Amino acid sequence: MKLVEDLDVRGKAVFVRVDFNVPLNDKGEIRNDTRIRASLPTIEYLLARGAKLVLASHLGRPKGKPDPAMSLQLVARRLAELLGRDVAMAPDVVGAEVAKLKAGLVPGGVLLLENVRFHPGETKNDPALAAALAEEIDVFVNDAFGSSHRAHASVVGIAGRVPVVAAGYLMKKEVDYLRKAIHPEKPYVAILGGAKTEDKIPVIENLLLKADDILIGGAMAYTFFLAQGGNAGKSLVEPDKVEIARGILAKAEEKGVNLVLPLDHVLTASIESGRVDQVVDGLPFPADLMGVDIGPKTVAVYREVIARAKTVFWNGPLGVFETPAFAEGTMAIAQAVAVSKAVTIIGGGDSIAAAAKAGVTEKITHISTGGGASLEFIANETLPGIEALERP
Q: Does one domain contain both 138 and 202?
């Protein structure tokens, strides 16, 4: 991939795909502007060198039609504050008015297109939309790692229609660090939690070829227990994934990978109660209780494994950490990752919130801005958005 610093952009129209898919609160205000700040190095570099910038992002899932609740107008205002300069807001993704705004850009000018997912052709990678996005554009820069697992028009389609393409600083940083998780210094420990086994299957299968230890937690652990014939009470399980889980366990044994399931479990009758009813060793669970966190024995074992690692990749909480009574396991693992001497990488998603809640964000080597993208990169070692930038 070419990098943004390899380009001559003075006076050129540069289309930058960013990931400004920021979380909003109940009042429709930006709750966290981390994703906007993450692309500032790329934007500021291009502006300092006299580029004319056209920025594009999605926000939420508007299903191919305009939705005022998902407009990027708030983002344009916040970006203008952070840059200390005007940011023009386009009324649409493409069209006559947008073309006029593009044509009127001067070096150092910034135009933010409206939410690209307001256009139905975005998620279909529609060639006509990609061609319209590329009109009057000299250079395409992808700085949207978090969107690069999607073969969308503003991520992949446009790249084939612009003469020069490159990666932005955020994209480079993400790829550099995540490559450490697929070409790791060993011992390599992967920590995988969360609710859905399905989301993690391709990741686990690739990690079985690379990791020394895989520590499992969260609701997906109970699908693995079900595969071993265990009864996890009324815990969340995925019966249709049992055969896959059984195959993963067998492959881990065959490859000599230490795949570890929780030894003890924090149980409750209902998540809504916010109350711990029992902490038990092993299975079966009482029929009226469900697992909501790893117990202290599991924490001790996992902490010991993490302490000897030289590379740690973590994706997914180890329990229902949003509820204080069920957060202790996840908080303890976050602390263990933070004090590790290893290269530590958090693969986006809820793990970011867990690290923030534990107060360890600044102690992690790299926190990915893309949960789904980081998982797909670990699984496939590339992404559609990255492949679109790779030219001879």
A: no
